[in-house]
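Input for the complex:
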Amino acid sequence: MMPSLFWIAFSFALILMTESSANAYVDPGSGSMLLQLILGGVGSVFLAIKGFRKRFFRKK
Amino acid sequence: MNSLNQPLHYDPASFKDPSGRIFYHEGKVFRSLTSVGLKKVEAALALLESGQLENFAHGGVIESSLLDLPTGKVLEHRLLSNITYPYEWTPSQLHEAACFTVELQLRLLKLGFTLKDASPFNIAFEKGKAVFMDLPSIEPDEEVQGWVGLRDFFEYFLYPLLIAKYLGLHHFRFWMASLGRVKLTEAGKLLSRAPFWSASIFKYVRLPLLLARLTTILNLDRIESKLKVPAPIVESNLEAIMTTLRSLVPKAEHSFWSRYASECHYSDSARIEKHAFLESELSRMTLNGAKFNLGLDIGANTGEYSELLSRFASSVISIESDSDSADQIYKMARAKSFDVHPIVSDFTALTPALGWAGLERKSFLQRWQGKIDMTLALAVIHHLRIDANVPLAMILDQLGELSHHLIIEWVGMEDPKCKQLLRGRDPSIYQDYDYPQFINLLRDRFDIHQSCTLSNGRVLISATKKATNRKS
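Predicted:
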């Protein structure tokens, strides 16, 4: 389980780090609905962490 | 309005809009509407008339009304005095337009509407404030699927601002070839060395790049069309973008030219003489209190004389090649509510016509040549002649083509700034650059009214284009 997760993460990191240009027929705007959902998810996670920190590290 | 039966002259820039086309008639601006366009515009207009699109921090929506003519319904918009393009804007202008677009979209979503695109060409500036002028872009949001304008927003607004922050490129003319747009792949390359811990670069550049690649590899297009983004997520994303925009407020940079006015060799007495001459001549030419319609300040620097000219002209165009100096002009216009429009451009390379068949976005000269009442060409002639190598006769020809009245500052070869420019250059090349020849060339084209020699040796001359040369 762990090695496969590692390789998935490694592959993602490789894609992120690669600077090769995207195929000319690939519309960089495609994925924007997916992007909006992911951005919303990322935002919610950040908000949850913020709320969590506030709750547990609040000065008494 | 009966004469609307005559052939209409459509604005060539409005061909992309499926809801109708812009045309001008008797000095007013109208929009013809298709049946689909009419339905959408009626809904947007009702929203506008309800007063719910007022009181924005960063701008407003253009006043519009629907006219019922025998030929059909047309939309009339309030005519805006001057339209500048995003690749001519200063950093603070693009930032203002970006904040206003997000603010407008957030307001619209709460009212059950949406912006169908996010184009900076839908925004004009008036007295330093952003004005949204494309009412048909406001549509009822019948089924929230996410904001379709997000990609446009990133490429026209967010990426140029991120590049300005991380690379220090505040000059949006770099993106003129693509009409002000920085594509995702280009932004990815340019920002590849931005800090890896930057959340905004990760969320808005690296993540979309990754998704674009994954879309190809995993054929995500199939699921993309079926996805719907719930309204709360769209809103929270917009609020996050607004937070990012707050971190991208252009900082006051101190370039050589933005410090020039305070550090140049002009003594207090010479500056007072210059102000006095300008005020006296501008007052004389607008004697009955009738302001000039349009003024032009060439090489405006931080806007000291654009501000003065704006007291005598309803609108002023200020050309300044240094974006940091031009940004100070914009901030002055915004703070004092003056209708001053900075254009980041070199006078020797004014904005060309761009877009489809060169008709979509007008050149500087198409927009303003012959329409300017008063031009200030203060302390620029030596730059044009010596730096840019433009012969004096051609400089004066161009000034005559642009404007009816002119106040020009002569900077002779003996002037310290001229001597600086001549360093390393052969002075014999500039044999036409002397005062008697300049005056003769000026007299050929203009009627000279007044001149004043300042205590630093520079000469100010006010003139009006000769009637025989003047275009009707």
